[in-house]
Design a protein that fits this description.
The protein is mainly α and about 575 residues long. It contains 21 helices and no strands.
């Protein structure tokens, strides 16, 4: 029998003996409780047959099957580091259960947001590359946390200032050997000139910081050329402040005597003071066009006078205006606004656009010679009414005779500018529009003897014969009013309708006219008592003051058509 076989037999005998003793003791003392609580593991997974202590070097226990798998530094720890008592389930699973919070709750209770199980020490990457209100860029990314968070041991991570001066004030104050920032009253916004890669090699963006971009020769100048005696604040940005000598020394033309403005940028550029150009279009309110573009400056700017030069045509072209004889401008009373007819290309090719005046030429007027209206070369004050030119036409027209008919002298009512003889009269534009049968009636039917002015517009004046000749009913005998339009229309004299205007008779509408108007020759007379007997009306009018049973009295009270007696 080998040694190992013997050892196994001996171990089984020992366990059997121990189990017998344990069973005996259990029968004597009752059941034994595990110090680990409700742990569903066999004792031999951790303990050995030699005794409860020490446990096996490598317990037969898989921590991955628990809610807290061991990873990183946790896997190398002794069990008792976390399990401080024998009840293994009585232990926390949060970082804060084992690790003291040096940050004093400033970052919350989730340590794993910055720390990992690989080690407690953190790096820039472990805090998500510092992607908060102050991202770490350039040299900042290589710094250790405590370089800025000097109070890290006591939880000083939040609430730090993010402006450069809060960390770099010493650098700001120690720049006196180069440019004394404090003495020159530089702002403490270091990022205006410095980058995050290095404090040295600062660059100043003149355009962004001052609003005065350095271009042309300005970009090549030393700072002290403009910032005298190291003065940076309050440096003027207008050209004249630096270029006063250039301005005063220029004599072609002399800027001082010509009273040129001090805004040098109007003509000069930053490339060179010489070679200035003047853009008359952009710099003045008088753009040069046509022949003006080739005229020497001195032709308009007499004696080198540039400021206050007049811009009206007549000031320069007075001689041209007075010397023109076809037509003679002064004699004709032409306005001195030469641009009405002339352009800047050539004085002699003037054209007059009558459409730009208050009297545009249309129709036959377009081809009429100017002298036909502008008598004796008189242009100013020419009358614009038709009659002034067409008096002969007006007086010579006989069909109809305008003068004897009393036609108005506003010729445009009937005539147009195309032809005098094709006149048409639009009656709808008068106070008496023609409708119905009136449209086809000859003019002479109403305008007797060629009389147009004062023609009456009431119906009776033309339809008196129709009124008097009507017998069914007789308008004259019935005393009908002469306002024919009450019953008649312009379509036809016949087919008139009467709406019983003076006595509304809603309940009488089914009656015949003769029921009330018993005298067919006189509709002014009527009777009520034929239908409304005394026996009917007396009982209903008891107590009515002034009641009398007769037609006239009935009408006086019931003239609005009321009552059903």
């Amino acid at each position: 029998m080998g040694y190992r076989t013997f050892a196994r037999i001996a171990f089984c005998i020992i366990l059997s003996t121990a189990a017998s003793g344990l069973y005996a003791r259990t029968q004597q003392r009752g059941p034994t409780h595990s110090p680990h609580g409700a742990l569903k593991l066999r004792c031999e997974n951790c303990h050995t047959e030699t005794g409860w202590q020490p446990i096996r070097s490598f317990p037969d226990f898989n921590h991955d099957k628990t809610p807290f798998a061991l990873r990183g530094a946790h896997a190398k720890l002794d069990c008792k580091s976390c399990h401080t008592n024998l009840v293994f389930s009585n232990v926390g699973t949060k970082c804060a259960d084992c690790h003291a919070d040096l940050h004093r709750g400033q970052f919350g209770s989730r340590c794993e947001e910055c720390h990992t199980v690989q080690g407690w020490r953190v790096s820039i990457q472990d805090v998500k590359e510092h992607q908060n209100r102050f991202p770490l860029l350039g040299a900042h990314a290589a710094l250790d946390c405590v370089s800025c968070h000097t109070g890290a041991a006591v939880g000083q991570f939040t609430g730090l200032r993010t402006d450069c001066a809060s960390c770099h004030m010493t650098d700001f104050l120690n720049t006196s050997s180069v440019i004394d920032h404090k003495a020159l009253n530089f702002p403490t916004t270091c990022e205006s000139c410095h980058g995050t890669d290095s404090w040295f090699g600062a660059a100043f963006n003149h355009a962004a910081m001052t609003g005065f971009a350095l271009t042309g020769m300005h970009a090549k100048l030393a700072c002290t050329a403009c910032h005298l005696n190291g003065k940076f604040q309050g440096t003027p940005v207008d050209c004249y402040s630096c270029h006063m000598q250039d301005f005063n020394g220029t004599n072609n033309p002399s800027h001082v005597t010509a009273n040129f403005p001090h805004d040098c940028g109007t003509c000069h550029t930053t490339i060179s003071w010489m070679g200035a150009t003047f853009d008359h279009t952009k710099s003045t309110n008088f753009p040069l066009t046509g022949a003006h573009m080739t005229v020497p400056c001195a032709s308009c700017h007499i004696n080198g006078q540039f400021v206050g030069t007049p811009t009206d045509c007549f000031s320069c072209h007075k001689t041209d205006f007075q010397g023109t004889t076809n037509p003679n401008h002064p004699a004709a009373g032409f306005p001195t606004d030469c641009s009405v007819c002339h352009d800047t290309v050539k004085w002699a090719d003037a054209t007059f656009d009558h459409s730009k005046t208050v009297f545009p030429l249309t129709g036959a007027h377009v081809t009429v010679p100017c002298a036909s209206c502008h008598i004796n070369g008189q242009f100013a004050g020419t009358p614009m009414d038709c009659y002034s030119c067409h008096t002969v036409d007006y007086q010579g027209t006989t069909n109809p005779n305008h003068a004897s008919a009393g036609f108005p002298t506003t010729c445009a009512v009937c005539h147009d500018t195309v032809k005098w003889t094709d006149a048409t009269f639009d009656h709808s534009k008068t106070v008496f529009p023609l409708t119905g049968a009136h449209v086809t009636v000859p003019c002479a039917s109403c305008h007797i003897n060629g009389q147009f002015a004062g023609t009456p517009t009431d119906c009776f004046s033309c339809h008196k014969t129709d009124y008097q000749g009507t017998t069914n009913p007789s308008h004259t005998a019935a005393g009908f009013p002469t306002t024919c339009a009450t019953c008649h229309t312009t379509t036809s004299w016949l087919g008139a309708t009467f709406t019983h205007t003076w006595f509304p008779i809603p309940h009488h509408s089914a009656q015949l006219c003769s029921d009330c108007h018993t005298d067919p020759t006189n509709y002014a007379t009527f009777t009520c008592t034929t239908c409304h007997t005394k026996a009917q009306t007396d009982p209903k009018h008891q107590g009515v003051s002034g009641y009398v049973w007769n037609s006239i009295n009935c009408y006086q009270c019931h003239k609005n058509g009321g009552g059903g007696d």
